[in-house]
């Protein structure tokens, strides 16, 4: 059952990632609540899954001339450093804080999208 559900969750994540660029946003909660994966493994696994799906989406966006390469490089510099710090912090933070931070980010993103 979980194998089939995993494939369905991956499929939905791919569609959302290609359409909106936020596949990991739904992937982490789906792994936690439907696949009984702990939060730390969910975050790490989501990153591994989002990497190839983002490459595919990026290629299609690039083909459609919807990628700003100069801006992407600038953002990537900070993103790489921030990702390293965030991944290191995940090991040290209590899960209650990780839950709270994740919830705040999701709520803020939702408000931003609605207000838009």
UniProtKB/TrEMBL annotation:
<dbReference type="InterPro" id="IPR051598">
    <property type="entry name" value="TSUP/Inactive_protease-like"/>
</dbReference>
<keyword id="KW-1133">Transmembrane helix</keyword>
<keyword id="KW-1003">Cell membrane</keyword>
<keyword id="KW-0812">Transmembrane</keyword>
<comment type="similarity">
    <text>Belongs to the 4-toluene sulfonate uptake permease (TSUP) (TC 2.A.102) family.</text>
</comment>
<protein>
    <recommendedName>
        <fullName>Probable membrane transporter protein</fullName>
    </recommendedName>
</protein>
<dbReference type="GO" id="GO:0005886">
    <property type="term" value="C:plasma membrane"/>
</dbReference>
<keyword id="KW-0472">Membrane</keyword>
<dbReference type="InterPro" id="IPR002781">
    <property type="entry name" value="TM_pro_TauE-like"/>
</dbReference>
<feature type="transmembrane region" description="Helical">
    <location>
        <begin position="6"/>
        <end position="34"/>
    </location>
</feature>
<feature type="transmembrane region" description="Helical">
    <location>
        <begin position="97"/>
        <end position="115"/>
    </location>
</feature>
<feature type="transmembrane region" description="Helical">
    <location>
        <begin position="46"/>
        <end position="63"/>
    </location>
</feature>
<dbReference type="Pfam" id="PF01925">
    <property type="entry name" value="TauE"/>
</dbReference>
């Amino acid at each position: 059952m979980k194998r089939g559900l995993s494939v369905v969750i991956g499929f939905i994540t791919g569609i959302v990632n290609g359409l909106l660029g936020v596949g990991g946003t739904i992937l982490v909660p789906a792994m936690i609540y439907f696949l009984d994966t702990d939060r730390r493994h969910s975050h790490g696994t989501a990153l591994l899954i989002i990497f190839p799906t983002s490459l595919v989406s990026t290629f299609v966006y690039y083909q459609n001339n919807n990628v700003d390469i100069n801006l992407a490089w600038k953002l990537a510099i900070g993103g790489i450093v921030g990702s390293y710090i965030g991944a290191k912090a995940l090991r040290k933070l209590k899960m209650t804080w990780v839950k709270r931070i994740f919830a705040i980010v999701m709520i803020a993103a939702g408000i931003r999208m609605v207000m838009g």
